[in-house]
Amino acid sequence: MCGIVGYFGKNEALPILIDGLKRLEYRGYDSSGVALLHQSKVLCFKAVGKIVELEKKISEDKSPHPPLLKHALDPEQGGAKIGIAHTRWATHGVPSEQNAHPHSDCSGKIWLVHNGIIENYQQIKKHLIEKGHIFKSETDTEALAHLIEDLYDGDLTEAVKKALKVITGTYGIVVFHADEPNKIIAAKKGSPLVVGLGENETIIASDVSAIMRYTKQAIYLDDGEMVEIDANGPRIFDSFNAEITKDISEIEWDINQAEKGGYPHFLIKEIFEQPETVMNSVRGRLVLEEGMAKLGGLDAVADKIRNIDRIIIVACGTARCAALVGEYMLEEYAGIPTEVDYAHEFRYKKQILNDKTAVIVMSQSGETADTLAAVKEAKEKGVLTLGIVNTVGSSIARETDAGIYNHVGPEISVASTKAFTSQISILSLLTLFMGRQRDMSLVTGQRIVNEIQALPDKIRKILEADGEIKKIAEKYSKATSFAFLGRKYNHPLAFEGAIKLKELSYIHAEGFAAGEMKHGPIAMIDENFPSFYFVPEDSVYEKNVSNMQEIKARAGKIIAVATEGDEKIKDIADDVIYIPKTLEMLTPILSAVPAQLFAYHMAVLKGLDVDKPRNLAKSVTVE
Ligand code: F6R
User: Fold this and answer.
1) Does the pLDDT at position 386 exceed 70?
2) Is 183 among the catalytic positions?
């Protein structure tokens, strides 16, 4: 959702801020803005729509700025060296220039960008209006700018500290004051901020993607911390105002991973990366001789895990579909009762937890507000929390007691693909780990290890069928509704396939457990309502075939994802996409790929913005 970039250093701030905003585009936004501080004067630009609109506003600027401010935009004059920038995803007030950040106070000297939500902004705003403050936007953020102004007494750091004590809610902020042009201030609570340490420059952002081009050294701020950045670099203070020293982390993600590398879209690049990303997720974690998974991130809690007798996995959207596959795996192979909860429902249920319950939290971004709230609830109840997270240093990664990173690099396209197959891969490792701690035999463990190791080549083989899948998409491109169907391990894939198709192509799609069709949904089937059916050769194959016959008998068209060599399926299905044979529990990792490619081609055929579908955000940081 919203993105923040702040710069203080020796270089021209504007190109770095704009580049940072572009790197954060994938998170989803509807307007953007930038404020530059130059010789105690401020220049601000805002635009609705894509970052190019903001760039246009800046390059076509005809305002009669005094010469000094003109220098702020002139690279030949060195340009401004301090600035803040923001991409906004509307929450309070429509997407408009007035509502876009940065926001300022009445004097126009204090400028602020903010992620998160200030819950008591209406009371603050009312109080400040009574005192004579004039507001220009509908946002919660503007209230904070005016509050800082109200509390300002010549020291921005002190005013920000005082203001943050008054507000409730969540924030990641970066702020400057034109009268104190030698520093910028940032603070965080419940919304991520990372400080990038360059050579004579500091870049602060809500996401490492905006930083990694300039430096690999980063400090992740924790809730309640504040940072003051000046020419000497950052000074960090804890919630008690004591100056603290924090560990510097190395950003492991590579800048090439955050670029398209010759593909027309990030989505297709990420789909094609899956042989490597599944390999990266399991690399160094499989021990064939022991039929076991080695999970360093769980070492500290391995004994606790041995005693766990119930698992709850919490996640949202696609991550939840992966969790549902995990439920089948953990119950069948580790013998541990497992249930999956929507993260956003977890807090509202009476949870019956004890010291033998583990809550597994799964999130690609590590910043999903609903999922983070579920972790906090679980911790409050004192149960063991384990994270399966892709983004190193993210809030969920840091909040959980222990965890396993996905290691798939940045997932830029809004629709999750490589993170999904990685999440199931990690759950298979966890199943091995917990299964071998219990009754799973060495032979079974070794068979799983061998099959996991063979997955990347099998995914490669499926990707070779991309051209055929594109043709199938062309054939069905006029359909307005789809059913996605599967049983047992591929039952969650029905949900995931439907999510992919609807979010990318805006075509109505619903996922059903295949056995449920005859209990109602089959009434919808006719020659214009096709089904996308996951029917690998597994323990429920015959049952699936019967359900397919029922659809066929009602003139329903079927696209089947079936196992290589299954010729008989062609008698029932209208189109078949083959996947190689693997262990039943691992089939979802393979069957996900044709569904992703199908959804991708359907969206491209409709000429849609594949990487940034409408109304969606990559990282959903509101509840
Ligand atoms: C769909 C998709 C979303 C996310 C969900 C959770 O393609 O990407 O459904 O899976 O918003 O996001 P994370 O995994 O970041 O918590």
Assistant:
1) yes
2) no
